[in-house]
């Protein structure tokens, strides 16, 4: 039933609560908002739970473009389809879905290929709008436009998302685990599984053991890596990392005059087979590249640095070392086909998701989730819209 629904809210605006970022670095304000009905190829979702990812914090802190306020942040979530717009046939009212910031149109050359997850029809960008039309579906009670975030805006009881950003999932999946696969965990696991294609018995070095780095470790563990070296400035991360397969740890503050790459090369007798940069610092990309083995070493960049940050390598080094350097957006994961695989692996007790959730709060306490992440106390804090 394209664009039709049996419920009494379909086709009408919904009044609900949302946590709005009105000014940079100020606590989010929970207010009543109006969520417009979905238009052509759009879906309106009732959010069940959402989590806080560091990208939300980055854009909450940002004072210059692409910063824009007032905005409804949030992009890691799980929800139920409330109604669908015209031309939507992939999901129906009542389906369990995950909204994902990276589009998967299912039509372009890239989306039809197994080689890439970078859609050509909807190139990824940090936009304040919904994807096709570049307008908003949110207004506050004064009629002011509220801007979208990463095509998801999950810090609202209801949100409107383009069908290209919707992945249908098994309704038996626990909501407070499914939401983790919207961004961070999928990015890390996918970087090892899809982008690097880590081989069994190989050596992996992970620069930065935040949620993404730990997810890389989990992905490398699933791929059968023999040695997983975690690098971080926080010694506590070794104990946490062991849960996800980290076998060795380097505290970059305790290595004296040596560089991290020198330490890794000594530990691995020539360099790691796979290096992952999960912090977002050009200096660490250079260290990771230096720490990867000549001839076949792969360095994968996952961290998000400042927009103008530049990398510089000598052409001699690139030619003579034979190494690979690659970027990995959303871990190379194709949302509509790969997320269901990850969910099945979780349900089959292969993929660990439970260990990523360190805290759970109710929607009214959403600012506590920000505090916990900023204080370095949480990996992922699940925010329940209604417990």
UniProtKB/TrEMBL annotation:
Pfam families: ADH_N (PF08240), ADH_zinc_N (PF00107). Residues 211-343 form the Alcohol dehydrogenase-like C-terminal domain. GO terms for molecular function: alcohol dehydrogenase (NAD+) activity; S-(hydroxymethyl)glutathione dehydrogenase [NAD(P)+] activity; zinc ion binding. Residues 41-169 form the Alcohol dehydrogenase-like N-terminal domain. Its cofactor is Zn(2+). Signal peptide: none annotated. One of its GO terms (biological process) is formaldehyde catabolic process. Keywords: Metal-binding, NAD, Oxidoreductase, Zinc. One of its GO terms (cellular component) is cytosol. Coiled coil: none annotated. It comes from the Eukaryota. Belongs to the zinc-containing alcohol dehydrogenase family. Class-III subfamily. Homodimer. This is Enoyl reductase (ER) domain-containing protein.
